[in-house]
Structures are given as C-alpha cells and as structure tokens.
Amino acid sequence: MTIVVPPLPPGPIDRQNSCFHPEKLHLKWVKPPHNTKVDSYSITISNPSSYFSRSSHLSDEQFVTTDRFEPGTNYIVTIMSISYRTYSQPHTEEFRTLREFVFLHALGTV
C-alpha cells in the first residue's frame, strides 16, 4: 500500500518580481518549504465579474499570460501545488492590476 502525502502549499507571491499589467500578467511565487516535491501548480484567478483558470504543468514557480484583465481591478489568485495527483491546501492572495497609463508613464512613454 502506497501512502501519498499532499504537498505543502506554495508561499506568497513575490511582488518584487511579478508584474500586474492587465495585458501581460506575470506572477512569481515562493516555492513550498522543506523541498516539497512539486509536479505542477494549479492557478486560479478570479474576481466577481470575470473568471480565468489555468493549470500550469511546469514545475517552476511562475505564471505568465497575455489574457486581458481589467486595468485597476482587484483579483484573487489561488495557487495549489500538485504532486502525485494530490493537491496542497490553497494559497490565496489578492492583487490589483495596474492602470495602463500609470505603467506607461513609469516607462517614460507618455
């Protein structure tokens, strides 16, 4: 008989190395502690008026999408580690997408 222990959940979103631009969202998070084996991650992003869900089958701790999100809008992201087809407890955080003109101004293109 094989016993499979659920993996530990991932850590928080690394806000220094993530980009919350509404046209190119890039999330990076901290690996689960204690060398937890992770085959992939399940990422769900939602808000009351829209829903986006995607499972990443990569073992690195980042998610990039060019799906469009509403500028200046709060979203909830839920990330779970997956190992041996077993899901961790969810790690949930809220983030706000940038307003496009603020992002462009910061780049000096406005």
What can you see in these coordinates?
- This protein is mainly beta and 110 residues long.
- Helices cover 6% and strands 41% of the residues.
- The protein contains 1 helix and 8 strands, in the order ββββββββα.
- It has one helix spanning 100-106; strands at 19-21, 24-28, 40-47, 50-56, 62-65, 74-83, 86-87, 91-96.
- The strands form 2 sheets. Strands 3, 4, 6, 7 and 8 form a 5-stranded antiparallel beta sheet that branches.
- The radius of gyration is 15 Å and the shape is elongated.
- The N and C termini lie far apart (63 Å).
Characteristics:
about 110 residues, mainly beta, five-stranded antiparallel sheet, 8 strands, about 5% helix
Mean pLDDT score: 83
Poorly predicted ranges: none
Task: Assign an overall shape.
Answer: elongated
- What is the percentage of strand-forming residues? 35-45%
Cα separation of the termini: 63 Å
Q: What is the helix tally?
A: 1
Number of strands: 8
Percentage of residues assigned to helices? under 10%
Query: Class by helix and strand content?
Result: mainly beta
Tell me the series of helices and strands, N- to C-terminal.
EEEEEEEEH
Rg from Cα: 15 Å
Q: Characterize the biggest β-sheet.
A: 5 strands, antiparallel
